[in-house]
Write a structure and sequence with these properties.
The protein is of the alpha+beta class and about 325 residues long. Helices cover about 30% and strands about 40% of the residues. It has four helices and twelve strands. It has helices at about 1-30, 75-85, 205-210, 265-310; strands at about 40-55, 60-75, 90-100, 105-115, 130, 135, 155, 160-175, 175-190, 215-225, 230-245, 255-265. A hairpin with a 4-residue loop joins β10 and β11.
Length: about 325
Amino acid sequence: MRRKAGLILLALAVFFAALSPLLRWYAFPRLAKIPANQYQDMVLEAKDATLLDYGTMQARKVPKVTIVQTLKGNVEESEKIERTAGRDVVVWDGLSYVVGPDGKMVSKIPERYIFDAHTQEPVHATGEMVDGDPVRRQGIEFKWPFLTEKRDYEYFDAQARVTAPIHYKGTRDFRGVDVYYFEQTIPWTKVRFPRTMPVEGITPESVAKTGTTRWYTTVRKFWVEPLTGAPVYGEEIHKEELRGGTLLGGRDKVTAFAGHVKMREDYIESTVELVKSNRTLVLLMTSYLPWGFLALGLLLLALALYLEARGRRPGDPEPTKDSEPEPVTA
């Protein structure tokens, strides 16, 4: 009976010991993915910013500029692309909507970002765009990979339509969460005017005829929770200028926007709480369950060996043999 129990425990020990690496290295990369129907929004603010008044073409100080960013999963498009891509794909339709202190629109930039649901690598397909212009992204945007590493990544800048390194700058504590801090600098770069201008009747084409160009630079900062790859906080030191042309009335340049853009406090709190809950799920599959299964396998192995040793304990009496009958003599 002990031997049968020992064999059962040994089989269970092998099962759980084998399940441990399978869960971490096989199941997790296939199960961890961004849902195709995810929706998220974010409000950022630049207080005491500089903003161009297009009526007077003069830059002025304003108390606040608000940026509302939304990302909406397009399930229908993702399913359509998956049929030809042969992998799980997420399509995010994004919008960056900038509002001045008077509540009027300053700019709005739509995007379509298509990426692998597991690795967050870009997937190139019809419809990938920024502000209606087709693009071919290289590098990540919005979201880091699961199990983010302590290294530099390539990050796509939607304003300049370029990919540049975003540098790992160290590990920090952000409101009780261990995060990796990344920073990217985009130098002064000539960029396109938005298709939707803040003044009715003015178009990018009409501005281009004046010879005026738009330039942009930013320092982009992210605090990323490494297990989920989700930014818990972000900032940008953002500047835009109009340069040259007859639109400026003989001036070389004028500031179109300058401000330190930060996440609004209520969105910081909700983002941190969401990331903490998702972090627990990732830990469950990458640490808690694999190590738990390995420990259980070792415990069961020890138990099986113990039962086997008890079954062969020295000093036990040998089983008696039936003696053969002696021959009968007359």
